[in-house]
Design a protein that fits this description.
Residues 104-132 are annotated as: Disordered. Residues 118-132 have a biased composition (Basic and acidic residues). This is DUF721 domain-containing protein. The chain is mostly helical and 169 residues long. Helices cover 56% and strands 11% of the residues. The chain contains six helices and three strands, in the order ααββαβααα. The protein has a three-stranded mixed β-sheet with strand order 1-2-3. β2, α3 and β3 form a beta-alpha-beta unit. α5 runs antiparallel to α6 (143-167). The chain is elongated, with a radius of gyration of 29 Å. The termini are far apart. 7% of the residues are buried.
Length: 169
């Protein structure tokens, strides 16, 4: 059985063979990932990746259940192609869902931010009408809640004075 206990970093750097083996395995998995993506439809490229290859079983990760279903339709053709081209000893393909894979996907249609990078976010201001309603609520409240509501209402006064200073030429 494989020893999969955590290792100290010092032992990794002391044992050059272990570090070299890790690097070679990572490179092999990257090449395998590239080959698998070349065999899959283009729409699946960003939703699927090779997670591992161990004991003649290829482990693929997909971002959600719908991509898992779609990959299952592709699985027989993928298995055959991989056996012929790259991995003759491949026995099966195991597919797992990894939700963190979907969080890494950036859709080109969805911009990250509507604001330019060099402009700060606009300051939110509390209207005087909202501040008055908060003051009325604070008058009916007790203790810490009353203090917090009064501080919140005071923000409207500070925001108005800051806004009037900013608007002056």
């Amino acid at each position: 059985m494989r020893d999969s206990r955590p290792l100290l970093l010092d032992t990794l750097f002391d044992d050059a063979n272990l570090l070299r083996d890790l690097q070679q395995r990572a490179i092999a998995l990257l090449k395998l990932n590239k080959a698998v993506k070349a065999l899959l439809p283009k729409a699946m490229h960003e939703h699927c990746r090779v997670a591992n290859y161990r004991h003649s079983v290829l482990v693929l990760e997909v971002s959600n259940a719908s991509w898992l279903t779609r990959l299952r339709y592709e699985q027989p053709a993928l298995l055959t192609a991989l056996r012929h081209e790259i991995l003759p000893s491949l026995a099966s393909i195991d597919i797992k869902i990894n939700p963190s894979l979907s969080t890494k996907i950036q859709h080109p249609a969805a911009p990250r931010s509507n604001l330019p990078e060099n402009k700060p976010e606009p300051v939110r201001r509390l209207s005087e009408q909202s501040a008055e309603q908060i003051r009325e609520l604070a008058a009916r409240s007790k203790g810490k809640l009353k203090e917090k509501l009064e501080r919140l209402a005071a923000l409207a006064e500070r925001g108005a004075s800051t806004a009037s200073r900013d608007e002056k030429p």
